[in-house]
Specification:
- The complex is a heterodimer of chains A (425) and B (114).
- Chain A is an alpha/beta fold and 425 residues long.
- Chain A folds into two domains: 2-112 and 286-424, Rossmann fold (3-Layer(aba) Sandwich); 114-281, Dimethylsulfoxide Reductase, domain 2, CATH 3.40.228.
- Chain A has helices at 36-43, 61-74, 88-101, 114-123, 130-136, 147-150, 152-159, 201-212, 227-239, 249-252, 258-271, 288-299, 321-326, 340-343, 346-354, 366-370, 409-424; strands at 2-7, 19-24, 27-32, 53-54, 57-58, 78-82, 104-107, 139-143, 175-180, 192-195, 221-222, 225-226, 242-247, 276-281, 305-306, 313-314, 332-336, 357-361, 373-376, 386-389, 395-398.
- A nine-stranded mixed sheet of chain A has the order 5-4-19-18-17-6-7-15-16. A five-stranded parallel sheet of chain A has the order 10-9-8-13-14. In chain A, strands 1-2-3 form a three-stranded antiparallel sheet.
- In chain A, helix 3 (88-101) links the parallel strand 6 (78-82) and strand 7.
- Chain A is globular and about 65 Å long.
- The N and C termini of chain A lie far apart (50 Å).
- Chain B has one domain (4-110): Barwin-like endoglucanases (Beta Barrel), CATH 2.40.40.20.
- In chain B, 21% of the residues lie in helices and 34% in strands.
- Chain B has helices at residues 14-19, 27-33, 40-45, 83-87, and strands spanning 4-11, 35-39, 53-57, 62-70, 76-80, 104-110.
- In chain B, strand 3 and strand 4 (62-70) form a beta hairpin.
- The longest helix of chain B has 7 residues, at 27-33.
- At the A-B interface, helix 1, helix 4, helix 6, helix 10 and helix 13 of A face strand 1, helix 1 and helix 4 of B.
């Protein structure tokens, strides 16, 4: 059995890079250091693998690539979507393809942290790396997120329990506050849990800013939280040496969305008048930051980019996938390493099933089941190497641990691009 | 039984995150994403037992899910991300790209009662 060290997990945005994977031939036998989610990613790498097919019939890879290129060449308004669970070289190739065919290109951020991206564009962010949080943060707030179930090793590697340079006793040197609409399993790791009413995040955050500025607030409670609790909270935030707020989709998916995140970012910014304070989103997929980074360095924008006019146009609501599909504007779709059909609202998914759709994925999904063309690939981080960006924008090498009979996402996208080029030349 | 209104919170669970690797149509993943968590008092008031099938209905669609008791606050229900969630989600993003995925108002009725 071969041991491969320093393996990177692409399941969630913590993008852990210290896994030990034990392989025998093309099978993973054991995984050490991974959380339960990471372990499931590697140990089930052979489960439910996608197969090459066109309109439900088995086909060769070459036939699938030809059919995919034909769909894209014929389309007037193609959409390329997904890309958060693959590595950066494949992402670069997808942007190149989108540029060449004049597609709209969008990422899974569109339906997770796109409100965060828009809020950061609007008001900026005071932020830092997870390494700084590990070594400095003595107060942590987790707002509308549930790391215990979605990012299990965030607590143990970076934020709650690790011993750091300025917090040598680890958890004993830190105060952890969880704010959410329900008591999630993450509450067990917190010193304090503050339960707010659903949809009241903006109100609560705005009142906290008012209290920070010394304003009188003439109400007894906000969002179901008694005013004295909020006053005590703001004193704790002001009184720490290095505070860090982490937010999740409790803010981005709830009423207010980007406005909620703006309120949180402004609170973090204002707290810097009293102490050092940072804020950062709990990003979902292992390389979701990678696609935002690649898209930004290539086009200037992190998601919802349209290249049909020969230059990048950015407009969430107009070029974001759910809107494009629900308005029935896209007439073909290329979905890479994502399950759009399962995750989009019904109206968007229905349009996806009406138009020619190409699914590039290592695993079967509800998208591959309805796709016109399915092109299986080697799973990034398991059977394909590359690069990924952790949730704090740190680039991390991604290893291959076992072989796959299929090419990588990058190779497939490159071959589709070559075919498209030859058809259009 | 009359239809009762709740606020639907959606999200990840550990089981949803592990069984996703077995396949989106695997029994384990489908079970996890088709189980709605309810407060015990809400279940009692609505004459629901753990394991009962209920129809979850929003302004955009409906889905059949199984009831499970949890310590979620009264008035809220929780469903893990999956096809049942998407099938009742509206596509209006208020021009920012993100549909309303958490905090949706839903009605719940026991399956087969009407």
């Amino acid at each position: 059995m071969e041991k491969i060290s320093d393996v990177t997990c692409l399941f969630c945005g913590v993008t852990c890079d210290d896994l030990e994977v034990f392989v025998e031939g093309d099978t993973i036998k054991e995984v050490k250091n991974a959380c339960i989610l990471g372990k499931a990613t590697f140990m089930n790498h052979k489960a439910d693998l996608a197969t090459p097919r066109i309109r439900g019939q088995a086909a060769s890879m070459e036939e699938c690539i030809e059919a995919a290129a034909e769909i894209l060449v014929r389309a007037n308004f193609p959409l390329i979507y997904g890309l958060a669970s693959t590595e950066c070289n494949a992402q670069r190739k997808a942007v190149e393809l989108a540029d060449f065919i004049g597609a709209s290109i969008d990422t899974t951020s569109s339906v997770c942290h796109s409100p965060s991206l828009q809020a950061i564009q609007a008001v900026g962010d005071s932020t830092c790396t997870l390494g700084e949080i590990k070594n400095r943060a003595d107060l942590l707030v987790f707002w509308g997120c549930n790391p215990a179930e979605a990012h299990p090793r965030h607590f143990t590697r970076y934020s709650v329990t690790p011993k750091g340079f300025f917090v040598p006793k680890g958890k004993k040197d830190r105060h952890v506050i969880l704010v959410d609409v329900r008591k999630t399993p993450s509450a067990k790791a917190a010193d304090e849990f503050i339960q707010i009413r659903p949809g009241s995040d903006y109100e609560v955050l705005t009142v906290l800013r008012a209290l920070l500025k010394g304003e009188e607030v003439e109400v007894e409670e906000v969002g179901g939280v008694p005013l004295p609790t909020l006053k005590a909270l703001i004193e704790k935030l002001k009184g720490c040496k290095f505070g860090s707020i982490h937010w999740g989709m409790g803010l981005t998916m709830s009423r207010g969305k980007h406005m909620n995140v703006m309120a949180l970012l402004l609170l973090a910014r204002d707290l810097n008048q009293f102490t050092k304070f940072v804020a950062s989103p709990m990003r979902g997929h292992g390389n979701v930051v990678g696609i935002a980074t690649v898209l930004t360095w290539q086009t200037g924008y992190p998601f919802a980019v349209n290249l049909s006019r020969g230059f990048p146009q950015y407009n969430p609501g107009e070029f974001s996938s759910v809107d494009l599909l629900a308005r029935r504007e896209a007439d073909a779709a290329l979905i890479v390493a994502a399950d759009a059909f399962a995750n989009f609202p019904k109206a968007a998914g229905e349009h996806l099933s009406r138009i020619p759709t190409i699914a590039i994925d290592s695993k079967e999904s509800l998208t591959t089941k309805m796709a016109t063309v399915v092109i299986p690939t080697a799973q990034a981080g398991v059977s394909a190497p590359g690069l990924a960006y952790r949730m704090d924008h740190i680039p991390i090498p991604v290893k291959k641990v076992v072989d796959s009979p299929y090419p990588s996402d990058r190779e497939v996208l490159e071959r589709i691009l070559e075919k498209v080029r030859s058809k259009l030349s | 039984m009359s239809r009762s209104k709740f606020i639907l919170i959606t999200g990840r669970t550990t089981r949803q995150g592990t069984t996703i690797h077995l396949g989106k149509e695997s029994e384990e993943f489908v079970e996890e994403t088709s189980t709605v968590e309810m407060n015990e008092e809400d279940m009692r008031r609505n004459n629901l037992q753990e394991g009962d099938q209920v129809i979850l209905r929003s302004a955009y669609g409906s889905t059949k899910v199984t009831c499970k008791r949890s310590d979620i606050p009264q008035g809220l229900v929780f469903l893990a991300y999956g096809l049942p969630v998407s099938s009742i989600m509206g596509a209006d993003t208020q021009s920012i790209g993100m549909p309303d995925s958490k905090g949706m108002e839903v009605e719940i009725e026991k399956y087969g009662e009407n």
